[in-house]
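I can't quite decide. Please look over this sequence plus structure tokens:

:::
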Amino acid sequence: MIDNPGHEQDETRSDDADGRIATDGGVDTDADVDYLEAEVNLLKPSTPFMRDHLKQVWAGFIAWVILTWGPVTATYLAPEVMTQPIPVLNFPAHYFSVAFLAPTSSLVLAYLYSRSRDKLDEKYGIDHSTAAVESQDDVDADAAATDGGEPR
């Protein structure tokens, strides 16, 4: 990757494995993207994964704002409607919506985000599994004992 200070990300170019010249930052969606080397910009995502993830984040944020602050705002704007008792529960609508709807919707949104993020990870081949833990036999005998003890 060529480092051009003062130039935009789209102007920086590199050769990929096929010899084709592709724009860095994942603009060429057919090429493999090195996500660890891509520039992160929240306002202009440089990779397809980042663009898709940002769409999920914004959708979740907008839904959260509406579901969390909507009942409070509705109570301010239309107090006569929101203070009416709910027919079955005989409980004021604003109490129910603020005490139950807002927190429950946040939990549901967290669940939906985790599911959609898992699907996005699958789509882009991102694996979060941990590497196998080394057995004690694999540890070098000269390795430092960080707990103050002697290596085995």
Summary: Residues 1-16, 19-30 have pLDDT under 50 and may be disordered. The CA atoms of residues 16 and 22 lie 7 Å apart.
